[in-house]
Design brief:
With about 240 residues, the protein is of the alpha/beta class. It has an eight-stranded parallel β-sheet with strand order 7-6-5-4-3-2-1-8. The radius of gyration is 17 Å and the shape is globular. It has a single domain, classed as TIM Barrel, CATH 3.20.20. Helix content is about 45%, strand content about 15%. The two termini are about 35 Å apart. α7 links the parallel β6 and β7. It binds pyridoxal-5'-phosphate (PLP). Keywords: Pyridoxal phosphate. Pyridoxal 5'-phosphate (PLP)-binding protein, which is involved in PLP homeostasis. Its cofactor is pyridoxal 5'-phosphate.
Length: about 240
Amino acid sequence: MSSIQQNIEHITSQIHSAEQKCGRARDSVQLLAVSKTKPNQAILEAAHAGQRMFGENYVQEGVDKVQFFNHNHPDLTIEWHFIGPIQSNKTRHVAEHFAWVHTIDRAKTAQRLNDQRPEHMPALQVLLQVNTSGEASKSGLDTDQIFELAELISRLPNLKLRGLMSIPANVTDYNSQLAAFKQLAELKDQLSEKHPDLDTLSMGMSGDMEAAIEAGSTIVRIGTAIFGARDYANKN
Ligand SMILES: *Cc1c(COP(=O)(O)O)cnc(C)c1O
């Protein structure tokens, strides 16, 4: 068995024990394998271990991978998630190649993705990226902007709002991690009063997955713990 396959089995069992520990149903948390900077071969190994959801951060790299797998491995039915920042001149590529986008933080981006979503594809599943840390340097919406943008998206036929996503400040203390994730979960509960279909909280990465699961995460985004450390030498 390859180490990627072993890592996926290991993470999956960690997810299952975290679910069990806080009384959540088995498989209520999905694993998104974050494959940015990693080659197609690594994705293929993960797919052979049964992994089907992959997350990409860079538009061109992501599109190349989607096209490679659609062309060479259509039988794998991979579900591609875009989880990086979106510049408005790149929205068309995202609209044409991905099933999900986790990083909506502007009305303009939402509108363009809606307008550019091809007719033959199902609605693009979207999450609003929230800045729970309050750090001005971080991307994501402030809490008061969330309701307005959710309202706009609910009127766009080619987008389906599924929930919220955040990348909290990088802290190692469990209780601080938990507090930040609970804040996102509470926001989703408030938003659900007006948008009852919301079912997704994308939160938790390799270093803070357990706290995210305790706070109600439904998608954890795991890169390093599956594929190993990233080499950014060819990214700037
Ligand atoms: C890179 C990335 C991840 C994965 O992070 P790891 O620490 O490698 O697990 C998760 N979410 C987002 C938005 C990322 O950009």
